[in-house]
Amino acid sequence: MPNLQYMYKIRILIVTLFLSLSGNAQNLPDSIVIVKNTYTYNWGYELLGQSPDSLIDNSQKTVLTDKRQIKNLSEELNKLDDKDNLLSKFGIDTTYIKHNPDKLLKLYKNGYKIKWNSQQKEYIFKILSEIENYKKTLSDYLSIGNSYGMHTFYKYEFDISLYKNGELLNTYLSRKYTARYKMPYTDKKGNFIYNYIDKFLQKSFYEKNKIDKPLQGKKLLKYLVNKIIDYEEISLYELTPYSYQTEINELQSDFQIVSFEEVYGIGRYIWDEPKTMKITLKTDEMLPNVYLQFLASQVGNSIYS
Fold first, then answer.
1. 52 preceded by a cis bond (ω within 30 of 0)
2. Are strands 167-173 and 185-187 parallel, antiparallel or unpaired?
3. Whole-model pTM?
């Protein structure tokens, strides 16, 4: 004999699911109008107090009436995002970031061949533990391709309108872009949507450039770590000489050591030259505005002039 309580729960579940689907169907638009706007650079806009983007009469338009396409697109547009919580959306564990800077450093490709002395590690561990650095770098990653350039004369924007029985339900604007992602989309209430509908829009308007999904999870974390460390390149240069503190301190017998750093932009990063330290020195006999800059290159595990 079947369990009556169990059968009752099944019936309730079926009814709830039916009502949910019916409600969603009733709220679905019956048509979606998508317009692709084209902008060009507005020369002299600063003097005129106008926008740098000038809309040109080159709009393309398509109207969706296929129920399946309408359902899929409207569902994605209704998934609102918290702009301050995008790390979680893209699979980044902020708790892991805060407590594992040493493991994060192992993700660095180290194209600058940093040896990582204790001062550099102390500095970069603090940088890698700050969540705001990841938020900014993720925002930069999603915003690539939003500026005019030498070979980019136009920006594009998608204007998406949802209709039900001729009544406008909501509108969504993509960002103005020159390349890469069209997200975020912003609705008329100012909500942000960071869902990947770019491929669908690309097909609808026969765009040829391939747009892959944004990175997520471990791949995205590795990308962010590398970018964050690369941003700190100059600061890391300044800390390199601590690896040769003993040799630098020997100069104190004859000079006052004013400052020291690795020479930026030459040497091992461009040619096959060794890394070079620049030590700024002074003595009491020198005039107030006179300094001596001593250059010493790495030879083996030490440095020599």
1. no
2. antiparallel
3. 0.83
